[in-house]
Structure formats: structure tokens, C-alpha cells
Amino acid sequence: MVQSATIKDVAQRAGCGVATVSRVLNQTGPASAKMREKVMVAVKELDFHFSEVGRSLQSSTTRTIGCVVPSIENPVYADAVQGAQEVCLDAGYQMLLICTNYNAEMETHAIRTLISKQVDGIILTVGDVNNSEGLDLLRSRKVPYSLLYNTAPEGQISWAVDDHAAAAKVASVFHDNKHKHTGFLGLDFLSSDRARQRFEGFAEGCASHNMTPPALLEVDDDSDDLTPRLEAFLKQHPNITGIFASNDYRALATIRSARQLSIDVPRDLSIIGFDGIKVGQMIDPTLATIATEPRALGAGASKTILSMIDGSTPPELPSMDQTFSFRDGGSLTPLVAESEDDGKVAAFPSSNDQTHRQVKIQQERPQ
């Protein structure tokens, strides 16, 4: 087995001391241009690589950043992690990613694990910022951290969306499209404070437009089949003409389940999501949604952590009114006059509904 070259081998090849090689490679001290060239030539010829373990022992840093998110199954978190990782790599840091599956115990375990690995900082999304054992650990250990997507308590930093204002915007959009009876579909509030804040903002927005208070359907992240839950929900609230899903991933699942129930989107039911993931623009109908910039948020969180580590000027957080915008889509349509007049919607049309049957026949007829 061929042994890797050591720093002593590089020093011998370059004709200098080990300390000189270390200064050149770490850029931590003086060395002549000629000696730097000799060292770099020796490094290349010997294919020398610094041992990260040795480097961390010398510098008391590991040049790693931890990242904790609920799931990368939801593309919004995958995009945010990608943005964070790009910044870390450019700065010479590696990223260690752990997903918690919206589980509080896994969240605490993930943070303990990263602390034990002596990461230099952590970017994280927690279930509830006001009740997180993991955040308490980070504060007590004085580990640099930046929240991602959580609304930050006073004195803490977070790269997040103004969930409350964005959700109120959804209520306004439904109102402008003549929808008075709406529902909110979101993850269990105990595992996602983002879902809770979006519901609160949506409910207040509905109230400001004299709309009926939104009906609430909470689902677990591991709920594979939304269809029976949606069917029961709409039968319990037959006047609902629009649903606001707390994220695009759930909105797309709602569209799929609606089709399985022979509910036409948007003719029978309008749906609005939250996040603005790319796949929402690739389906038919396209998804109306609150558009955000997850990659930019992830990158900002990484820059914040790096500024904490090296003492540089932190990046400026975006103003909250610039963190989202409404994107129209085919999943939203104005409520038709007859439905608006009688306050009802045929979410489950009768088998004798000739208009619905004709639409179904046209859809199923071979082209």
C-alpha cells in the first residue's frame, strides 16, 4: 500500500523547514515568492493533501458547518441547503447535513451529534423556536448558529419569510377571486411553527375581508395518503371553494387527491400553495403560490455563520416585505357567479350533474 506524502516530505522536496511549508499552505506567515513557488511545486509533485484532522487540532476548528432541516423531500429545503453549501464550499468549509423528519427528539439528537463533532457553526430549521431543546444547547455551548425559515425570537438571527404577511396575502387573493369559504391544510402545528404562523396570518387576513373563518386540516408529514382525509374534510365543510396549503409539496398532494376524488381543480376547488418550487410550474394546472427564494435564504444563513466565525461584517437581512411575492397559476380561478350567489360548491358533484359528467367524458375521450 502506497503511503500518502507528509508535510515533512514536502519540506524535504522544497528544501525548507516544516514550519515554512505550513505558513505557505495556511497563508499565515511570511515567505518569499521563490520559496512559495518551491513549496507549491513540491505539493503538486507529491500530490500532498493536508490532513483535516491535523489541521483542526492545530487551529481548534474543523472547517465544517452543520445543517439541520426537517426534510429534503420537500424541494424548498433542498434548494436552501444547496444555496448554503455553495457558500460554505467557496469559503473552504464542508457541510454536514442531518434531516429530522419534523421530529423533536431527532432534532435534539441531530444538534447534539453536530456539537460532538465540533462543527464551527450550525444552520438549522427547528420545529418550534420557543420550545427547542436543541436551541437551548447551542446557546449554552455558545455555538454560532443561524435559523433558517423560522421566525427568529428577539436577539436571534434567521433567514426567513414573513409567514404572517404572506399568508394574509393569500386571503386577499382568495377574496379578490370571490372565494368566501376557504380551508387551510398544513403540517401538525406542534412539528412546524411555520404552518401555525401561516394559518394565523391567513385567518386574520380572512377576517379583515369579512370572509368565513378558514376550516383547518392538520396532517402528519408521514401521511402517505391524503385522499381520505381530504374527502372527509370537504364533506364536513361542503361550502369550501378554496384551500390554502402551508407548502407547495402539500398543495401538489392536494391536487392529486382532488383528482382521485373526481374534483376538478380549479373549477370545483381552487388551491394555493406556499414556497414557489419549480415543479409547481411544470404541472397542469400550474400552481398558484407564494413564491420565495430558498437558495438565497440558505446562502444568507451560511454567510451569517461565516461572519460569526471570522468576525467579518455580517450580511444584511432582507426586509421582510421583500421575502415573498404572489405567483398566479392555473390552480386558482374566480368563483363562478352561481356558486357565489348560493354560497355552495359542488366539491362532490352528483352523478346526475350533466355538466360535470360532460367534462369528464371530454377529458377521458381519446384524442
How would you concisely characterize the structure shown here?
The chain is an alpha/beta fold. The chain has helices at residues 7-14, 18-26, 33-46, 52-59, 75-90, 104-116, 133-141, 163-176, 193-208, 227-236, 248-260, 294-310, 337-342, 354-364, and strands at 64-69, 94-99, 121-124, 145-148, 158-159, 182-187, 215-219, 242-245, 270-275, 288-291, 325-327. The protein folds into three domains: 7-50, no CATH class; 64-161 and 295-314, Response regulator (Rossmann fold, 3-Layer(aba) Sandwich), CATH 3.40.50; 163-293 and 325-364, Rossmann fold.
Structural class: alpha/beta
Residue ranges: pLDDT <50 for 5 or more in a row? 349-367
Mass-distribution shape: elongated
CATH superfamily of the largest domain: Response regulator
CATH class of the largest domain: Alpha Beta
- Largest sheet entry: 6 strands, mixed
Tally of individual helices = 14
Plain-language structure description:
Residues 5-59 form the HTH lacI-type domain. This is Transcriptional regulator. Residues 345-367 are annotated as: Disordered. Keywords: DNA-binding, Transcription, Transcription regulation. InterPro entries: HTH_LacI (IPR000843), LacI/GalR-like_sensor (IPR046335), Lambda_DNA-bd_dom_sf (IPR010982), Peripla_BP_I (IPR028082). This protein is α/β, with parallel strands linked by helices and 367 residues long. The protein has three domains: 7-50, no CATH class; 64-161 and 295-314, Response regulator (Rossmann fold); 163-293 and 325-364, Response regulator (Rossmann fold, 3-Layer(aba) Sandwich), CATH 3.40.50. Helix content is 45%, strand content 14%. The chain has 14 helices and eleven strands. It has helices at 7-14, 18-26, 33-46, 52-59, 75-90, 104-116, 133-141, 163-176, 193-208, 227-236, 248-260, 294-310, 337-342, 354-364, and strands spanning 64-69, 94-99, 121-124, 145-148, 158-159, 182-187, 215-219, 242-245, 270-275, 288-291, 325-327. The strands form two sheets. A six-stranded mixed sheet has the order 7-6-8-9-10-11, sandwiched between helices. A five-stranded parallel sheet has the order 2-1-3-4-5, with helices on both faces. Strand 6 (182-187), helix 9 and strand 7 form a beta-alpha-beta unit. Helix 1 packs across helix 2 (18-26), helix 6 (104-116) runs parallel beside helix 7 and helix 8 (163-176) crosses helix 9 (193-208).
